[in-house]
Fold this protein.
Amino acid sequence: MISDAARVDLLQSVPLFAGVGEDALADVAHLLREREFGPGDRLWHEGDQADGMALIAAGRVSIALRQADDHSCKTIAMGAGETIGEIALFEGGPRSATPTQPSPPPCCGSAGRTSAR
């Protein structure tokens, strides 16, 4: 389990939270929930309604992005200290991609819609 102090340290390393004071980060840290994913597990599916975002604490996550031709996908990898799902969360739209856990499981913190605003 990640301590609150370690969560604040992780949040301080994330560009999305740049310039946010330590007290506010401590409040956000309390909202994070650790989740573990096994190889091949999907965090959510493209088209799902956004109800949170994920902060990758360790490991890697592959993101499958559907291309304009609708028949192919581009895959990108993201790692520790990166956030995923924040755009759909903040804009209130559906998920635009499907993140999958390809390697040993990371812990991801997820904040719900109401707590992320």
Notes: The radius of gyration is 14 Å.
